[in-house]
Every structure is written in structure tokens, then in C-alpha cells.
Amino acid sequence: MDLLRFRMAIEFAVGYPKWSRNTVEAKHKDAQIARLYEDISQNANAVAPAPSFDRDASSKNTFGVGETTRDWNVPLQSYGPLFPLISSRNDWTAMNPNRLAPASLPVVLDFQGVILWTPVFDASATSLHLISIVCEMLLRDYNVFFSKDFVMEIHVYRKTCRPYTGIDIANFLATVWKFEHLLDTLHAKPPPSAVSNGGWLLQKPLHARHLQHNQRNPNPRHPGSWPSYDPYMSKEELECVLSCRNLQEVIDMTYGPHGLSCQKYGFCDSPIPSIRFNQHESTLDSASIKNWLMVCFGLVVLSDSNSPNLKPAAYLRWALENPGYTVMDLLWAIGLPEQAEYYGARKKSTSEKMMGGDGSYGSWSRQSDFLEI
User: Fold this and answer.
1) Does residue 37 come out as left (phi exceeding 0), alpha (psi in the -120 to 50 range) or beta?
2) Under 8 Å CB-to-CB from 22, ≥6 apart: which residues?
3) Range among 171-180, 203-212, 296-305 rated most confident
4) At what angle do helices 235-242 and 312-320 cross, to 10 degrees?
5) pLDDT (mean) for 158-167
6) 337, pLDDT greater than 70
């Protein structure tokens, strides 16, 4: 993990007293909202400035680019729709997501959606500590609310001159395809608005996107489309993904047309090649963030075609023959016993909680700390 860097975005909402149409403040609402983003950015950079390391944009080795996107024969488009909009990668940056439409809110409050991007960090304990400092500041100084519609987006890069290869990406997508139904149990169940046509972002499992792509644009190299969505990976599917040997084949195999839907896992080629995790359960709980980041790093390391300790293809073929394989087994296999213990404890705690009479947790909470496993 020492060779990795990452950047993440956290979505939340800030509540404030209702705007009165008869006050001077109401006329300056837009200006005050703009100051809110500036204030959050300045406070985050003040309490947790990013460590200084070489960020020379002219150096291809800085973020592990190594080769140009065109050299990889990858379409110049991003599968992380917000990422290219960030002009600065060196600072904490709060932005207006322009799409968080809160519902079922306390009537005495107005809410403003915020998406906070971290700087590019090394995958280190120091970076995790800086993130925890900012989380504590936000929870202390702002009236923060969450909804299950909010997501936490993570981009993981290599910081060496060796970029992600087609085999690496194929290994990663095959891994999350095989274990997606298990990894989903580490997060809250997404709300209906996030998986239906009414949601602002249609979160798609890898299987569903592949089905959609094959139905619209059959790939001549992989002409078969799976007849129905099945959360469990078949041997045929596994070998089909693992057979890809360059990034273009991987994209043809796994991605459909770019639109208002987004896979929970994927590859982003712009502006910096990265593996992207886009999960529900946005949070400012530093323990939750730390443990999910470690899982993301572990999955990227597992996908490394040059890994000396574990051969991804052989491991996936072996796991395919063991239907009783659990997410805890996976965490132990990729060297994350601390995370296995953490999520195991959360599972036990969640199973002991009683939900409300209507079977729901409600739309909003001051801190999203529920799991559904």
C-alpha cells in the first residue's frame, strides 16, 4: 500500500435556520452559500494542511501516470463525473454538488448540499489522521446532516511510474464482480431513490451495467449477454473478464454508454488514471472512513498483476469453487484482519438493533451509522 495515493469526496448537508423572504439576508442567500463553501474549504486546509510532496504536473511519475491516456487507447472520458471538475488537487475543496435535493427535512431548517474533496494523499496513517481531524472539525462547527442518498467517492492511484495495466483493471473488475454482493454488506442498503429512475445517480452493480451494455452494443469479442442479473459470478463470466489484456477490451467488456448512471466500482482515466469506489453510506465517522479506505487499498493491491504474494486470477478461480466464502474470509485473505474484526463487530451490533415499526431508519440522520447485513 506504500505505492498508492488516493483522493476522496464526502457528501453531506449543512442545516441552518429557515431563510425569511422578508429579511435582507434572504436577498443574499446565494452569496452566503458561496461563503459557506469557502469557509469549509479554508477551515479544512487550516486544521489539516496536506503534506508537501512532489506534485509537479509536468512529471508523469508524480501520480503514476507513466503513459498517456491515448497510449492506453482509452476513450477520453471519465467514469467519475465530478472528478474532472476539480481544478486543484492539492487542497481541501468544498463544492456545490448541484444535485443534492434533500427530502423529508425538519421544517425549521434549510439545507445546503456540500461535496468536500480531500487533497491527494499518500495511503498512510498520517493521511488518515488528517482526514479524522477535518471530520471532527465539521461535526463540531457545522450542523451536519446525512441522507442515504449521499455517497462517498474514492479514487486510488499509483504513485510510481508503473501505471495500471489492462490486466490490473481486468483483475480488479473480476474481483469486485465476484465479491460485489459481499462487499455491499459492509454498507447501508441504498435507498429506493438511488436505484430507480427517480434517483439523481443510478447506482448500478457491475453485472447490471454489463447486461445493459451487451443489450445495446454487443461486443463482437464477447457476444454473449447474460440472460438475467445474478449477484453470483459464473465461471464463464470470470474467464471472460480475465481474458481481457488491454484497457480498451476491459472497457468494452464492462462499461456501457456514459450517462446518468454510475457503477459502484470502476476505472477513471481522467484527469489521473485511478480505480474508483463509489459507495453509499457517506459519513464523517473517521473509523468508518479509515476502515473502508483500507478495504479499497486492499482490493487494489489484490488486483496487481505483479503481486508477489497472491495471484488474483488463481485466487478468484479458487474462491469461485467455494460458495460459502464470506466477506470476512475475503478481508483476511487480502491481509486486513483489523478490518475483518471491525466489520464483524458492526455486523453483531447491527443485528442487535431494533428498527422502527415501519421497518425503516428514516430519511435523515445526524450521522449515518447503520448497516444492513
Assistant:
1) alpha
2) none
3) 296-305
4) 170
5) 76
6) yes
Per-residue HEC secondary structure of the chain comes to CCCEEEEEEEEEEEEEECCCCCCHHHHCHHHHHHHHHHHHHHHHHHHCCCCCCCCCCCCCCCCCCCCCCCCCCCCCCCCCCCHHHCCCCCCCEEECCCCCCCCCCCCCEEEEEEEEECCCEECCHHHHHHHHHHHHHHHHHCCEEEECCCEEEEEEEECCCCCCCHHHHHHHHHHHHHHHHHHHHHCCCCCHHHCCCCCCCEEECHHHHHHHHHHHCCCCCCCCCCCCCCCCCCHHHHHHHHCCCCHHHHHHHHCCCCCCEEECEEEECCCCCEEEEEEECCCCCHHHHHHHHHHHHHHHHHCCCCCCCCCHHHHHHHHHCCCCCCHHHHHHHCCCHHHHHHHHHHHHHHHCCCCCCCCCCCCEECCCCCCCC
Cell readout for 206 is 457491475
Structural Rg of the chain based on CA atoms: 21
The answer to whether the beta carbons of residues 155 and 267 sit under 8 Å apart is no
Q: What is the mean pLDDT of the chain?
A: 70
Amino acid at 266: G
pLDDT tens per residue across span 266-308: 777 666 788 888 876 789 999 999 999 999 999 999 888 877 7
**DSSP bridge pairs for 74:** none
Mean pLDDT, range 92-103, rounded to an integer: 71
Question: What is the arithmetic mean of pLDDT over 200-204?
Answer: 44
Q: Find all residues with CB under 8 Å of 177, minimum gap 6, and list them.
A: 206, 207, 233, 237, 238, 241
Q: Is residue 8 pLDDT above 60, yes or no?
A: yes
Whole-model pTM?
Answer: 0.77
Q: Which residue has the cell 469557502?
A: 38
Enter the C-alpha cell of residue 302: 489484490
The answer to whether 238 and 320 have CB atoms below 8 angstroms apart is: yes
Cell of 11: 457528501
- The confidence score (pLDDT) of residue 260 equals 37
Q: How far apart are the first and last CA of the chain?
A: 28
Residues 331/311/8/295 CA torsion (nearest 10 deg) = 0
